[in-house]
Design brief:
InterPro entries: DUF6479 (IPR045513). This is DUF6479 family protein. Keywords: Membrane, Transmembrane, Transmembrane helix. Pfam families: DUF6479 (PF20087). By secondary structure, the protein is mostly helical.
Length: about 120
């Protein structure tokens, strides 16, 4: 093989690679254009955005504020005759307003910090 044949073979392979990359880029660009047009058609078929009149309004009395209260759990029903209660005999765990409405406060020296294995109640 002469040098001219090798150069010609190398050149033709590079041209094919460039053409293949260009065609691949055109295919990807065409797919992206199609996807955008498809998305626009889908958005046109969707319901329109709600108007400002459809949005919720503030109550007549002004904004509603948070109400804080201490809650305590309802007692579970007792089983009759020492039988255990089955899950279908229980009701949802509810709660009621507690008798003591003072917030529980942390007292220094009364316990260790969370998970530290501290001294606990001293």
């Amino acid at each position: 093989m002469s040098t001219t044949t090798v150069v010609l073979a190398a050149t033709s392979s590079e041209v094919l690679n460039v053409v293949a990359a260009f065609v691949g880029g055109l295919i990807i660009a065409g797919a992206l254009v199609w996807a955008v047009q498809f998305g626009m058609r889908v958005m046109d078929r969707e319901l329109p955005h709600p108007s400002p009149e459809d949005h919720p309004k503030m109550p007549e009395g002004g904004p509603v504020h948070e109400m804080r209260e201490m809650r305590e759990p309802d007692e579970l029903p007792r089983a009759e005759g020492g039988e255990r209660l089955m899950p279908y005999q229980l009701r949802h765990a509810g709660s009621r307003t507690g008798k003591d409405q003072r917030r529980k406060r942390w007292l220094p020296g009364s316990s260790g910090s969370f998970g530290s294995g501290g001294l606990g109640h001293v």
